[in-house]
Design a protein that fits this description.
- By secondary structure, the chain is α+β, with helices and mostly antiparallel strands.
- Helix content is 27%, strand content 28%.
- The chain folds into 2 domains: 25-55 and 176-330, Immunoglobulin-like (Sandwich); 68-172, Orthogonal Bundle (Helix Hairpins), CATH 1.10.287.70.
- It has 6 helices and 17 strands.
- Strands 1, 7, 8, 9, 11 and 12 form a 6-stranded antiparallel sheet that branches.
- Helix 3 crosses helix 4.
- The two termini are 24 Å apart.
Length: 339
């Protein structure tokens, strides 16, 4: 194992940095960065299926850990535009009310009709001011209204500049749609068994230089208690050059595997969890994308295999049905070896 494959452990409780444990098992990783206390004491999953880590940081000021810029990057496009439209309408409602409160003669062109009609006219005057679109019908007529126009014009210019920057950043950022199967399987593989999961790229943008890594986390008795240990699982193939279809990631369960001889009850008893990370190069953006997920013991299907998802078009072109990525079928494992 090369040095760049080793996981580094941050200093904790006065202990020096460490990579893999000095024990006999070369696949064992001392820590993934969760810290020994979190790893040993938590009884919930370390990583959520969406790839987020299941830990909390408390004691920070109310909004110290909130990044609006980061949030606007992460949300879906429809959420971004709904939020943008809501902020736009709210700002114009606020300034429209302010123009109305500035007095009946604050804005020329607003008649003496009912309050609702005058508020609607003030709202549309705010829209024209914020977007610098003027039709010559309404105009500020006193000092208060001109002051409001000055503030709104400044906020409008700055706000649209920020929105343009966020939209450009979202467009320039690679956003992969790599989907994992919602379960993993323990299926016959070779002369024994294998741990398998399936992954597919749902976007038309091509991914290249795809790499996968699986770490098995579980509780292990040590001394007078238990500790959570991490094992990097050796894969049948840990990287592929191209990703045009789907990829079934396989860990052969041989005599060197930490899963060797394990039963379903054993995995549940030791609170097993598989932490999966897939990285790739987005060809369109020439940038790296990362996706993570995890599988707990109850999300592993024993004695099953993934169904075939290949199909052929009328023109004879071979392809896959990505909607069948999660489909499995039972399989006879009586002939499988002990692993």
């Amino acid at each position: 194992m090369t040095d760049d494959e080793r996981e580094e452990r941050p200093e904790e409780d006065g202990e020096p940095d460490g990579g893999e444990s000095p024990g006999e098992d070369p696949t064992e990783i001392r820590d993934l960065g969760f810290g020994s206390r979190v790893a040993d004491q938590t009884r919930t999953r370390l990583m959520n299926p969406d790839g987020s880590f299941n830990v909390e940081r408390r004691g920070l000021p109310r909004f110290a850990s909130v990044s609006l810029y980061g949030y606007l990057h992460r949300i879906e496009w429809w959420q971004f535009y709904v939020l943008l439209a809501a902020a736009y309408v709210a700002a114009n409602l606020l300034f429209g009310g302010a123009y109305l409160l500035a007095g009946p003669d604050a804005v020329t062109g607003i008649g003496d009709g009912p309050l609702g009609q005058r508020f609607l006219q003030a709202f549309f005057f705010s829209v024209q001011t914020m977007t610098t679109v003027g039709y010559g019908v309404m105009a500020p007529a006193n000092v208060v209204a001109n002051a409001l126009v000055t503030v709104e014009a400044l906020l409008g210019l700055g706000g649209f500049a920020v929105v343009a920057a966020v939209v450009f950043a979202r467009l320039a950022r690679p956003r992969s749609d790599v989907e994992f199967s919602d379960c993993a399987v323990i299926a016959p593989y070779g002369e024994g068994r294998g741990f398998e999961l399936r992954v597919v790229n749902r976007r038309r943008e091509e991914l290249v230089q795809v790499q996968a890594e699986i770490v098995y986390a579980h509780l292990e008795p040590r001394g007078d208690g238990v500790t959570r240990t991490f094992h990097r699982l050796e894969l049948e193939r840990d990287r592929i050059a191209f990703f045009p279809l789907h990829w079934t990631v396989v860990h052969p369960i041989d005599a060197d595997s930490p899963l060797y001889g394990m039963t379903e009850a054993d995995m549940e008893a030791e609170d097993g969890e598989f932490l999966v990370q897939v990285s790739a190069l987005d060809e369109a953006h020439s940038d790296q994308v990362l996706r993570r997920t995890s599988y707990k013991a109850d999300e592993i299907r024993w004695g099953a295999r993934f169904r075939d998802i290949f199909d052929r078009s009328d023109e004879g072109v071979l392809g896959i049905d990505v909607n069948r990525i999660h489909d499995t079928e039972p399989v006879d494992t009586t002939a499988a070896a002990r692993g």
